[in-house]
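Sample intake sheet
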Amino acid sequence: MVLKKWKKVTASLMLSIVTLGSGMTFLGAPQASAAANAVPAYEVKFLAKPELVLNTDGTPRSEVIQTLGLSSTPRNINVEYFDTNALGLDQQGWNVRFRKKDDKNNYELTYKKRYPVINGDINAALTLANQEGFDKSDDNYEAEIDWGYGKQTLSFSNTKKVDTKATGVQLPSEQEALNMLLDKLPGKLKNWTSSNWGKQQLTQSRAYGPITFQRYEGTWNGQELTLEVWPIRNATGTGIENIVEVSFKTDDAVAVSGLRTQLLQLLDNNNWLIPADGLKTQTILERY
């Protein structure tokens, strides 16, 4: 009986031996392959000179609307971000956003993780994100490359919606908004560096904002294009300055570079382009 059992064990072990091309052998069961990297969409963003593209009342000038194919009637959106006083979420690359669009009957709750793209190496950023749990199989997060004037950023966004009877861009109280964000908190953020880390950070957070901005939508070169006007507190805290951003989104990784060059040249030729990068979220966290 013992001999029969030994023969069975020996046969099982022999089946587990894999002979490699080099002549070496590997003992053990085959490993399951890791999930592939996420496939990102692209959002190209440029900053424009507010003193040249806006009227004194903050609306886009008629030549800007005509050149970019924009509607003259904007969508109003009210937004605020949540983080601790020490910006604990931001330090780990996380942003938590709460907003209301004037034409929607819901609140949008967005949890976003960002990764810098170094020297244009998108694959390296995607691989790092994969190692931290953001891969192609995760359909709760949308992967996107934000491509500005000189740098790129990879982001993964998880957006939840909560129905509301609030009209226009009215936001709930700060505590009500925070309660909703905690209720919908995704697992990746909740347990990011340790168990309940994200929940603890968000519980201790406050609102940065709110800010109501205008989004003008249109079509340029076959692409849906937007121009946003963000009235943000200035650096000294004594007034408001407008940040103007022109952007388009595409899933076409092949065409995006050429389209980006065309938009850059169009803005530059009209002397509307600010040749610099800017991150609205970071500016808001610094000033509010």
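Comment: The radius of gyration is 25 Å. The mean pLDDT is 90.
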